[in-house]
Structures are given as structure tokens and as C-alpha cells.
């Protein structure tokens, strides 16, 4: 069965850095009505630093790759999203220690550990208009696709994240800066759910 090699995972994160650079304005515009207009800048800066680290010293296994991403995001991204994505990648890395590739089951385990850590750190549950609303459906989709080929499962996870992202529009924010707006947060797509979808879409479409 196909697996996620260290090379594939490295390529994913390098391409994600380009995606986030291109999406910088869009993500920052989403963060304007319900935030402080910095999500695009935060993500682009964090992943540009990730790209520099990975190019300078390509990690030898997926565990050290994910750990490098985590430490870099934590140290370079101001704002809520840095520690939250950092926690995701750090907890995910603990399930990939020493592994040079991940099966679908192993990636699902990493993803679950990452999401559990992120939710604990942010004290967030699904339905609160955060990145969790894209990531939690993606995890469910990965689990539901356990018997399917890897690429199909990754595509299902990206599709679930897209749905979860759009489904944040009618929600009232309960966590983060957007929650300060109360009912006025309704009617806007969450920026963090949008960056989460971008990341998962790129993992599913390495060449796209
Ligand atoms: P900040 O809110 O500090 O300016 P960003 O703009 O980079 O940070 O990120 C905002 C995004 O972070 C939100 O759109 C939301 O998805 C996510 N977020 C904020 N607080 C939380 C939380 N407690 N739990 C999960 N996600 C959160
Ligand atoms: Mg912000």
C-alpha cells in the first residue's frame, strides 16, 4: 500500500508554504471583519520560516520533520494560530518518531494526536467557529476511509475540511478574537478553518 514518505511530507510542507504566501491577502481579509487582519501574514511568515528550515536541513524522518515544523511555527508565528498549529504538529510528531514513511493508519494516528493536542491547548470543541471545524471533520473522514487507498482517504479528508470551513460561516464564534464580536461574528468564514483546509488540500493534491 502506498505510504506518505518523508519526501512526500516535506514536499507537502514546501508547497503549503507557497500556497499560504499566495493566500496571504485572502486569509488576512477573512481575519478583518472578525479578527485583527493578521492571519494571512502570520501563516505566510510561519511557513516561509518552515521552508527555510527544511531547505537548510532536510529532516531524515517524518517525526523530526513534523517536530521541526512545530518548533518553527511556535517561534515565528505571533497570534493564536502559531501555538495552535505548533501544538498540532508537535503532538503529531510524537506518533511518527523515527518513521521514514507513514501508512494511512499511521497518518490518521498522527492527525488524531495533533488535533487532540490542539483542542486541549485552545480549549476548543467543534461548532465554535475555529480551525477545529475543518480539522475535526477531516479526521472523521480519514477514519471512515481507513479501508480505502491512501490518496482517496486524503482527498476525502480535504473535502470534509472544505465542507467544515464553509460551515463556519453561519456559526457564532465561541473562541479566539472573533468571539469578542458575539453575534456579529455570524456570516463570516473563519480564517483558521480556511488555512487548515488549504493545508489538507495540498496534502491531497501534491501536483495540483
Ligand atoms: P489571532 O487570533 O491571535 O490574531 P490568527 O489571526 O493567526 O491569530 O488566527 C486566528 C484563527 O485561530 C481563528 O480563525 C481560529 O480558527 C483560530 N483560533 C483562535 N482561537 C482558537 C482556539 N481557542 N482554539 C482553536 N482555534 C482557535
Ligand atoms: Mg488574527
TrEMBL record:
Any one Gene Ontology MF annotation carried by this entry is: glycerone kinase activity
One GO cellular component assignment for this chain's record is:
cytosol
Alphabetically ordered keywords of this record: Kinase, Transferase
Q: Which Pfam families match?
A: Dak2 (PF02734)
Q: Which Gene3D superfamilies match?
A: 1.25.40.340
Tell me yes or no: is Cytoplasm among this UniProt entry's keywords.
no
One GO BP annotation is: glycerol catabolic process
Q: Which PROSITE patterns match?
A: DHAL
Enzyme Commission number(s) of this protein: 2.7.-.-
The record ties this protein, via InterPro entries, to: DhaK_L_YcgS, DhaL_dom, DhaL_dom_sf, Dihydroxyacetone_Kinase
**Residues in DhaL domain copies:** 7-205
Can you tell me where the transmembrane regions are? none
**What is the official name of this protein in its record?**
PTS-dependent dihydroxyacetone kinase, ADP-binding subunit DhaL
Gene coding for it: dhaL_2
Amino acid at each position: 500500500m502506498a505510504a506518505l514518505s518523508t519526501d512526500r511530507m516535506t514536499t507537502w510542507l514546501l508547497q503549503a508554504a507557497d500556497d499560504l504566501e499566495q493566500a496571504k491577502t485572502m486569509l488576512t481579509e477573512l481575519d478583518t471583519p472578525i479578527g485583527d487582519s493578521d492571519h494571512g501574514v502570520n501563516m505566510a511568515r510561519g511557513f516561509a520560516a518552515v521552508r527555510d528550515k527544511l531547505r537548510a536541513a532536510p529532516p531524515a524522518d517524518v517525526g523530526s520533520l513534523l517536530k521541526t515544523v512545530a518548533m518553527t511555527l511556535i517561534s515565528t508565528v505571533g497570534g493564536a494560530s502559531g501555538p495552535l498549529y505548533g501544538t498540532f504538529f508537535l503532538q503529531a510528531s510524537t506518533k511518527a518518531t523515527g518513521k521514514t514513511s507513514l501508512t494511512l493508519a499511521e497518518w490518521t494516528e498522527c492527525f488524531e494526536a495533533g488535533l487532540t493536542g490542539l483542542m486541549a491547548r485552545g480549549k476548543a470543541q467543534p461548532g465554535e467557529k475555529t480551525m477545529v471545524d475543518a480539522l475535526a471533520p477531516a479526521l472523521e473522514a480519514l477514519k471512515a476511509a481507513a479501508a480505502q487507498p491512501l490518496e482517496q482517504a486524503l482527498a476525502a479528508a480535504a473535502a470534509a475540511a472544505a465542507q467544515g470551513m464553509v460551515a463556519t460561516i453561519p456559526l457564532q464564534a465561541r473562541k479566539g478574537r472573533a468571539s469578542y464580536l458575539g453575534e456579529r461574528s455570524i456570516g463570516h468564514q473563519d480564517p483558521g478553518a480556511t488555512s487548515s483546509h488549504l493545508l489538507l488540500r495540498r496534502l491531497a493534491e501534491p501536483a495540483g
